[in-house]
Amino acid sequence: MKILVTGVAQHDLDTLIPALTKAGHDIETTSDMLSLQTVQRAQGFEAVVTFVCDDLSAAVINALAAAGVKLIAQRAAGVDNIDLAAAHQAGIQIARIPAYSPYAVAEQAVALLLSLNRHIPHAYQRVLHGNFSLQGLRGFDLHGKTVLVVGTGRIGQAFTRIMQGFGCVVLAYDPAMPVAHRIPQIEYIDELADGIARARIISLHCPLLPETRHIINAAMLENCHPDTILINTSRGAVVDTAAVLAALKQGHLAAYGADVYENESCLFFRDCSITGYEDTLLKELLTLPNVLLTPHQAFFTIEALEAIAAATVQNLTDYSAGRRSGNFL
């Protein structure tokens, strides 16, 4: 099959591209991300292998269809950058990778939590400059604290087990999870505001859907204990960033750690250190000492990359064979 792989980085050249080549596909790569300006590159390809930063809006989808593309194979779990209705109308099949390494993302969430609670970035910078004072570095024991996990799929479950290992009391909010699939011996709550009011730590692991967009907003944040730490390794837009910024400034939220940002598509996976960037909300957020942001790297482990490559190959194989696994939408 003739395949265009977009947004290719070095790690793709190390793992994904060799796997696709070994499977016998005719591969062409580009470091460009799909957009209306670059979609002409897909002319003559049956499939495109995309990532979360590609623009797969209706206009791009229609251009892909006109170029002869029949399959979009997303090498990620999230598909919120894809206009699914437009793809189905254009006759383009969509495959994704719903699971690769839930441990990678869960462990990143824990890393953000520990770094914020114990002020690791500040302590490191101080020591580099010869400041060995403990002033301002006090944290709290995780043991015995109440943690609210929003979304209890594979990642939420992995995060829950880690928190239980710390001796935390875990609450869960996941109205979409069937009762039979809920984590055993965990209290599931019906009202998000109730869980927020009870928790010292909130960790978000839900997909971005119409009903979860800005699920953490100004009204919800009013329920927070002022010592609460909020962690987001799911999707940027499940959080109203402006509301989080206001809550941090007003002392209604102790700290915010995130691996995602709701306006990240024009920034993340790029080096903007020389060119700079125009995002006043993000710049203001990053001025706060109680904010820790990483560049959507939670998935970025050896094991996860190998699993993504293998699953992408399998999705392409299934498509070629006329099979539709659970990875197809």
TrEMBL record:
GO terms for molecular function: NAD binding; oxidoreductase activity, acting on the CH-OH group of donors, NAD or NADP as acceptor. Residues 17-326 form the D-isomer specific 2-hydroxyacid dehydrogenase catalytic domain. Gene3D superfamilies: NAD(P)-binding Rossmann-like Domain. The keyword Phosphoprotein does not apply. InterPro entries: D-isomer_2_OHA_DH_cat_dom (IPR006139), D-isomer_DH_CS (IPR029753), D-isomer_DH_NAD-bd (IPR006140), D-LDH-like (IPR058205), NAD(P)-bd_dom_sf (IPR036291). Belongs to the D-isomer specific 2-hydroxyacid dehydrogenase family. Residues 110-298 form the D-isomer specific 2-hydroxyacid dehydrogenase NAD-binding domain. Keywords: NAD, Oxidoreductase. Signal peptide: none annotated. The gene is ldhA. This is Lactate dehydrogenase. The keyword Cell cycle does not apply.
